[in-house]
Amino acid sequence: MSVIGSLIFCTDCGNLLRESTGNADAILHCDVCGTRNKDTIPQTTVSESKPSAFPSALRAKRSAVQTLSAEDRKTEAIIDRTCNECGRKEMFYTTVQLRSADEGSTVFYRCVCGFKETSNN
């Protein structure tokens, strides 16, 4: 008789036997070949593996995705645009896709004086 975890197999034909009773004196009969097998106390086998042991395309994509915090998204570029409030020649801007993909993005302008303005492309 072979035991793998809590599964018990017939020693002659390899058929899966009925579940263990937990009594070492019990006899389990094979339904296929009729061999009598001694029962064993069920054993639980626990194994652990590293995620790298089973490579997958999905796992590779998940690790390639970068998570950004709110602080990381606060990136602004500088553009030559005159502020309507203070007359400064440079303003900060960011672009965000707020509408559907086939429409233009929204541009947010910000000046150091606190003036803000938006424009839809």
Automatic annotation (TrEMBL):
Entries under InterPro entries matching the protein: DNA-dir_RNA_pol-M_15_CS, Rpa12/Rpb9/Rpc10/TFS, Zn_ribbon_RPA12_C, Znf_TFIIS
Keyword Metal-binding in annotation: yes
UniProt-recorded name of the protein: DNA-directed RNA polymerase subunit
Gene Ontology CC, one term: RNA polymerase I complex
CDD domains recorded: Zn-ribbon_RPA12 (cd10507)
Native species: Penicillium solitum
Binding site for Zn(2+) 2: 83, 86, 111, 113
One GO term of the biological process aspect: termination of RNA polymerase I transcription
